Amino acid sequence: MKFTKKLISVLLALALLVSVFATLSVTVNAAETKQSREETHIIYTSGDYKYENIDGNSIIFWEYTGDNTNLVVPEKIDGKTVTMLARGAFYDKTSLKSITLPKTLTYIKGCAFWGCTSLENIVIPNGVTTIEEYAFAECASLSSVTIPKSVTAIGDRLFFNVSDVTVYGYKNSEAETYVSNYYPQDNIKFVAIDEQLVKGDANGDGVVTVADVTYMQLYLAGNKKDDGTPLIDVNNKSVLEALDMNGDGQLTVADVTELQMYIAEQD
After folding, report:
1. Are 207 and 184 in contact (CB under 8 A)?
2. If one looks up domain 35-192 in CATH, what number appears?
3. What is the Cα 254 distance to its own chain's centre?
């Protein structure tokens, strides 16, 4: 009996040590991200930004070194298109309250926003296909993340040590599947936005910006999608209501002007 109790005690102690070292290894892995990555990559500096060149046309956003609390990441730096966030790109940027990501982005590497303790919400641009592991770990103030349909791969423990997060996404999307399988469930919930069309959101990315003005102008100019269909389906009542800014029942140049004024008022 004494041997059995002693054996159980030893096993419990070992289990505890494994748990501690597992957590520790995750933290150390994130903390050493910058140090290790800059030793093996050629990093360029442009103002408050650091980046890695991919092919002369596109780049990996490496780091923000400025002190702005509301950051808008540009689509281009030194004339090159930002297509990826490096591992730990915003690691431990505790003062950042909001980060607007470029619409050119396609890939977000692991631990990208680890430790952004002041970050409250973020919208992942349509076009991003992958969000790697621990992307929002230790983001203590994070309350919502919007994930588009384009995301088809999401890494493990995206919200490590984060509580009460709402993921806004689309029905039958990777985001919905991810949330339904996430543990613990009481820390995260999914809200479908398919039917929640945002007023003025012409390109359907969940936010209203000058890009929507351009999208409406392209539609009015006769531009079409790759499959030959119109950029905007005005036969869809919900879509028309969301974009008919002056309420006259049709989509015209007047709505573009109204949208521009609407965006200016929000700013």
Report:
1. no
2. 3.80.10.10
3. 32
